[in-house]
Amino acid sequence: MDNLAFPVPSWAECLNLMTIHGMLPNIREHSFAVMHVARFLGDALLEAGFELSLPLVTVGALLHDLGKTACLGTLNNHAEYGAVILEELRYPQVAQVVREHVHLYDDIADDRYFREAELVNYADKRVLHEQVVTLEDRFVDLKVRYGRTPEALVRINATESRARVLEEKLFASLAIGPGELLHLNHCRRTSWENCGWPSSPEANPRSGKSR
Whose CA is closest to 141, among 123, 122, 155, 128? Predict the structure, then answer.
């Protein structure tokens, strides 16, 4: 549905923000992969008749780790850090998607069946470094890297359970299964026109209207 309009930064502005905030190359590549998955899901859900802003999904995914480099080696919350940057730039809806990419909020007033933040949150859980993987593989890695205490493992297990519920919700509405996202690994950024992204940066709609 095409009646949603949110302010979103242009493609060039997104890339500039990545540069200004020192996004490391590996985080940048991870962000492109998450954007790829989120946009694919957004396209599929729009085709199925759900109300979403595809530009908000796309930009929210691309900038979801905007605050990560600055927070490395600190106790700062990188999702909140990135969200504050975007709020200061007057992109409140993008900020909220970034804020929720690790943990979704339960108290958001939105009557739609899907929110853009849900797609980005799920997409991030399906990308390990630069590769699209299963939820199982993603959380195995998270437990190895971050599950160093019993408390940390409890948190990761709870996040995994929520991700699986979200996966069921998403794919119950689609004619494809979670495994079909793995084919996105065969698409390169040089041929996004074959994978749900316009072939030229100028095709990225700044208005924020959904397709």
Answer: 128
